[in-house]
Amino acid sequence: MTKTLLKLTRCFINRRGTIRLDDSAEFTVMINPAEFKHDHVITYDSTKTAGQVGKDPKFMGMNPEKVGFSIVLDGTGAVMPASPGQAVPSVKTQLDKLLKVIYRYVGDQHEPGHVRLLWGTLIFFGRLESISTSYTLFKPSGDPLRAKVQLSFMGAMSNKEAELQSNRSSPDLSHLVEVRDGDTLPLLCERIYGDPSYYPDVARFNRLVDFRRLTPGGTLHFPPLA
Fold first, then answer.
1. pLDDT band at 171 (very low <50, low <70, confident <90, very high)
2. pTM score > 0.85 for this model?
3. Which of 51, 153, 217, 224 has the most other CB atoms within 10 Å of its CB?
């Protein structure tokens, strides 16, 4: 079985909820995280009045989901790149590529971009909350040979998705993706779910008569996986 590696891709989410992936800013880890933390937090109002013994906390809202994990950047050659024959990049090169995806300021957006995390059954869209790098091995020159990078991301969604999220009965609770020239339904399923075999389900969900012909500029709904 082919090993699936965690992939981070910069993306942009507009107000309508349409997601556009930036394939020029993508980072695939060399070693998958050993642990992965995924937090879901609900906020309640538990304020008491004078003399009140207790009360039923009132639901206030659901905070954005958070994920956190650490990855290892290795430049020793002990961990070979996923592509055979590819030279082992330095720790600095790997870190620069990672920062381009998750941290760098995007000029025309006037803020850092959003990030899609894709690994196994996890499909998470969010923004970097924090990054901390610890260097653990060095060359005689002082250049780092290995680093441990601790990452924390906060979930993010468009205003449209937030409205749909508040209405759990809505059939439109899904990711919206704008079709680009050359896109196919299996290819889009691979980008969103990491598995092209979901295309019949997406075709039925969108009531497509001919899934082989997608109209560039159109919008498709990709529902959450069951």
1. very low
2. no
3. 153
